[in-house]
């Protein structure tokens, strides 16, 4: 890991994290290549913007929970290999109930060249500072379905939470991704054309 990258769980005090791809709790159903520790990594620029987002969220009584940041290219390659394997049904109901695993790439839920690998994209949600309870968003992380789109019709409380997260992130220098309410990329990312492959250790 070079000096331009940091552990976001250290660099942004007060955030919570659960690096899903370092665990068995993800759409692949096992730890993913390149994730050797449950840590969240990103560029310093990403960390500085997340600190601003943390403060903005706190003003509304919320904290940030990070699920993913920098993603090694080898992890993306692991996703590609997994998509070619026969369906075993272990994670389908939770993560991609209405599509075939190969369609994840065609529909834009998983990319062969991921913005995460550039180091300035983050997957995250809100939690209530007073209770620690996750904000209801009308669908979980990596639910590859139309309900995860920003334009999806979800009940008012969940919609309000999605809109708050989007407002917090856009005010802090991020742009949303239309198909995933949890996915944000730094507008002024420092490495827009570089895809890194060092492991998260």
How far is the N terminus from the C terminus? 9 Å
Percentage beta strand:
15-25%
Report the mean per-residue pLDDT as an integer: 96
**pLDDT < 50 stretches:** none
Q: How helix-rich are the residues, as a percent range?
A: 25-40%
The main β sheet shows up as: 5 strands, mixed
Shape: globular
Tally of helical segments: 6
Describe it for me?
With 201 residues, the chain is an alpha+beta fold. The protein is 27% helix and 17% strand. The protein is built from 6 helices and 7 strands, in the order βαββαβαααβαββ. It has a 5-stranded mixed β-sheet, with helices on one face. A two-stranded antiparallel ribbon has the order 1-3. Strand 6 (174-177) and strand 7 form a beta hairpin. Helix 2 (44-58) packs across helix 6. It is globular, with a radius of gyration of 16 Å. The mean pLDDT is 96.
Give short descriptive properties of this protein.
single chain; 7 strands; 6 helices; alpha+beta
Condensed summary:
With 201 residues, the chain is of the alpha+beta class. 27% of the residues lie in helices and 17% in strands.
How are the SSEs ordered, and which strands pair?
Blueprint: E1 5-7, H1 8-11, E2 16-17, E3 41-43, H2 44-58, E4 62-68, H3 73-83, H4 92-95, H5 103-106, E5 121-128, H6 156-171, E6 174-177, E7 180-186
């Amino acid at each position: 890991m070079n000096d331009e990258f940091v552990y976001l769980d250290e660099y942004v005090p007060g955030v919570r994290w659960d690096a899903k791809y370092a665990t068995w709790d993800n759409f692949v159903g096992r730890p993913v290549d390149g994730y050797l520790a449950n840590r969240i990594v990103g560029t310093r620029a990403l960390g500085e913007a997340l600190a601003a987002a943390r403060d903005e969220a706190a003003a509304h009584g919320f904290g940030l929970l990070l699920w993913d940041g920098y993603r090694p290219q080898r992890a993306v390659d692991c996703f590609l290999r997994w998509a070619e394997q026969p369906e075993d049904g272990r994670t389908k109901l939770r993560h991609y109930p209405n599509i075939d695993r190969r369609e994840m790439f065609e529909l834009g839920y998983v990319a062969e060249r991921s913005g995460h690998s550039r180091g300035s994209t983050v997957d995250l949600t809100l939690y209530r500072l007073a209770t620690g309870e996750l904000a209801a968003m009308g669908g979980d992380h990596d639910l590859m379905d139309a309900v995860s789109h920003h334009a999806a019709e979800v009940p008012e409380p969940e919609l309000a939470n999605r809109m708050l997260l989007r407002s917090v992130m856009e005010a802090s220098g991020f742009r949303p991704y239309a198909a995933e309410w949890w996915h944000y990329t730094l507008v002024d990312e420092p490495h827009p054309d570089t895809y890194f492959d060092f492991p998260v250790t």
